[in-house]
Amino acid sequence: MLFKKISCFLLLSLFCLTNLYAQKKDTLSGSSIKDSLKLNFVARMQAFAKQASKKSTAEFEADKAAISQIKTFDEIRRTMQKAKIYLKGNLDTPGTKLELKEIEDDFVVAGDGVFTNKGSAQTFRNLTATSKILSELVNIAHARKLKLDTRQQELNNFRYQLDSLLSVPALFKFPTDSTTLMKYLQKIRVVAYETSPVDSSLKLAGNNIQSLLNQVNMTVFKLQSSLEEIESYQKDMAGNTYKREFDNIWAPPAYYRPFGEILEFSATKGLLTLSFYAKNNSGKLIILVLLILTSFVYLRSLRNIYIEADLLKSDFEGQLVLRYPLLSATLLVLSLFQFFFLSPPFILNVIFWLVSCACLTIIFNKYVNRYWMRVWLIMVLFFAVTAVANLVLQASRIERWFMLIVSMIGFMVGLMTLIKGRREKLREKWIIWSIAFMVVLEFAAIIANLFGRYNLAKTLFISGFLNVVIAILFLWTVRLINEGLFLAFNVYSGQDRKLFYLNFERVGKKAPPLFYVLLVVGWAVLFGRNFPAFEYLSEPLQNFFSQERTLGGYTFSIYNLVLFLAIMLISVIVSKVVSFFASDGHLASGKENKQERQGIGSWLLLVRISILCIGLFLAIAAAGIPVDRITIVLGALGVGIGFGLQTLVNNLVSGLIIAFEKPVNVGDIVDVDGQGGKMKSIGFRSSVISNWDGADVVMPNGDLLNAHLINWSLGGNRKRVSILIGISYDSDLEKSRQLLTGILGNEPRISKNPAPVVQFEQLGSSSIELKVYFWTKHIGEANVTKSDLIVAIVDAFKENGIAIPFPQQDVYLHHPDKKESH
User: Fold this and answer.
1) CA–CA gap between residue 63 and residue 56 (Å, rounded)
2) Contact yes or no for 251/165 (Cβ under 8 A)
3) pLDDT, tens digit (0-9, with 9 covering 90-100), for 117-127
4) Which of 166, 226, 346, 787 has the fewest CB atoms lying closer than 10 Å?
5) d(CA 87, CA 550)
């Protein structure tokens, strides 16, 4: 409305000015007056409207252009400011060049013995070490290339933004007024003056980055070409395992390189691979240390429990895992966790194995028979020598003779052990088979070495001794794990004993067969890594686990599913370990400490729930499961529950709760709403209880959880029984107490802790009532024990003259008439 009023005002003002101008002209010229009189009033108004419209449109376009010009100039200044700030973060050109130089130096080190100083043949270990170093260098070069590409893209974006802003059409709409035009041109000149150095700097920086990118690209190309060449070498070596590389050992060498140089570049290359791998797997190494500390705390706590209960044996028979908790924890974690390091350098494996050997040697001290202790130390010595020899990456005549001598000594020692070994003193009989296998491998290594099969000979040479050491480490690892679980099971008798539930009554002290299956698989993996063909044989299996599969709209891999299950399993185990420390039955040594442990236990319950929730989220994230899909599934379940699936879902969820929380296990003796018996099976929706009458009661899991469930097995399968006895008023009460205490003390089926109790209840109408309370060691013996005790009590009371009176009443007759007559 304001714009319309201003427009009307301007039109009226122009019309009045026009009339005044026309009247003035009438007074000056008579001919002009005649011409103007010819035009009627409507025509004059139409001409005026057209002229005013054109003028208003021109002014509107000029104002619009001025606004756009102001916005564009502001945007140009902001973009220039951002570009200046970005350019101040100077490109680390010296750092990039230094990194490229370091890559080149490392490439020279890695290529020694492969691309330079090749010798007569390639070696498997040298090719493997070089491949690992080059792969790491490629990753470093790619990371640098990515940074340079990102910076160049940002610089190009700044230049593009400036060019596009300077090409806005509104900038080229010049004002019609000469004064305004001069001011506008001066502004453009200032903007151009400010933009020019920024554009030049951007262009110069882009050229510098492009120059560095060219160098990086050339480095990447050279590294990748070298990797492809090494892969061809490795493939050829895997396909020609039995091919001769050198002449017979007694023939003169075809190529000679000083042995000192070989040792020097082997050490340099080995340390380089170790540093790269440690840097890339620093997180796993930290987790390894934390697991060792956690296991140490657990084993030390278990040892303290046994010391407090005076259950620790002096010879540690069956308790060897508790002898040195830190060494046992280190051995167990290193033996198991090493499989989480994918394609580790051999030097890292050697460190893990030697540390494990040192721990086991100290644990063995004065526990293992002296003869077998010497055999173990000899095998460790052989392994250490062969491991150091295996770190030598290039073949030499000195090394071949060294391998031959050590193989012959190892062969003789192994053969003598098999012939004259004291097998009756051997605690793990499987060790004999590993020694026999070592003898075969060392004999094959001798033959291969004599006739120039160097790579085969070296592989057999290290594999022979490695197989013995790994077998012994794994056998004792399984044994120590089994001991740790068994010992925890024995003392974990609190209300949460189910969290460490293992049916040792069925397994006993012998490790489950699954442990030995995993032992053989782990041994095969570590043993096979020494052979060139192992990676090519294992590649299909790796592809099977890593290959992506599609189910509907969800893409997954077997590896992700296994990772999901592994994380959930670890979360459950960690929560169980936390629950172990929350147990107040072992670590509390007083009323105050017990109450304090109970308080801590209530807090640790929240910690357990948090651990499981965190584990679930980590497992979902690691498996790559989209959260929106989970939301959809939960929504669908909600709809299903709303349409009448409450009972089914209740039973299914109850089944999951029973599976995780384990309020009852298969084989437990339970009592549910009067249905007493033994748990026969626990299903996903329902469970089966075999009652004492021989019938199977099928009970939904929801009813099982909601009922008043009595689980006798959680309390150690014990039951408290009472017997009510009445004795006559003239009996010796103290003697009766002593007789009952003796009978109860001589009964082996009665638990001594807590001790039986004999107490007098009340003075009855015909007898003094006393009650006997006692705990049977097993609920299945409760009724039989009670029956036998009643017989023994009756016999003892008869022999000692203690009467058990019948309920009786005395009636007195009073006759007053007869009394008066007398």
Assistant:
1) 10
2) no
3) 877 777 888 88
4) 787
5) 46
What whole-number distance in Å separates Cα of residue 633 and Cα of residue 36? 87
pLDDT at residue 349 greater than cutoff 70: yes
Higher pLDDT, 431 or 649: 431
Is there a contact between 729 and 768 (Cβ–Cβ < 8 Å)? yes
- For the ranges 382-391, 406-415, 681-690, the lowest mean pLDDT is seen at 681-690
Global pTM?
0.63
Q: Is 675 helix (H, G, I), strand (E, B) or coil?
A: strand
661-713 fold: SH3 type barrels. (2.30.30)
Q: What is the DSSP string of 762-803?
A: EE-SSSEEEEEEEEESSGGGHHHHHHHHHHHHHHHHHHTT--
C-alpha Rg value of the chain to the nearest Å: 46
Q: What are phi and psi of 441, to 5 degrees?
A: -65, -40
3-state SS class at 344:
coil
pLDDT value at 650 more than 70: yes
Contact 333, 473 (CB under 8 A): no
**CATH 3.30.70.100 domain locations along the chain:** 718-799
- From the number of C-beta atoms within 10 Å of its C-beta (0-12, 13-18, 19+), residue 241 rates as middle
Location of each CATH 2.30.30.60 domain in the chain? 661-713
The CATH class, in words, for 718-799 is: alpha beta
Residue 384's contacts (CB-CB under 8 Å, 6 or more residues apart) are 354
- Kindly write down the DSSP assignment for every residue of 197-209, as one continuous string: HHHHHHHHHHHHH
pLDDT tens per residue across span 754-801: 788 888 888 877 788 888 888 887 777 777 888 888 888 888 888 887
CA distance 298 to 305: 11
**Could you identify the residue written with the tokens 């072992």?**
586
- 3-class secondary structure, 338: helix
Spacing of C-alpha 474 from chain mean position = 22
> Residue 498's pLDDT is what?
39
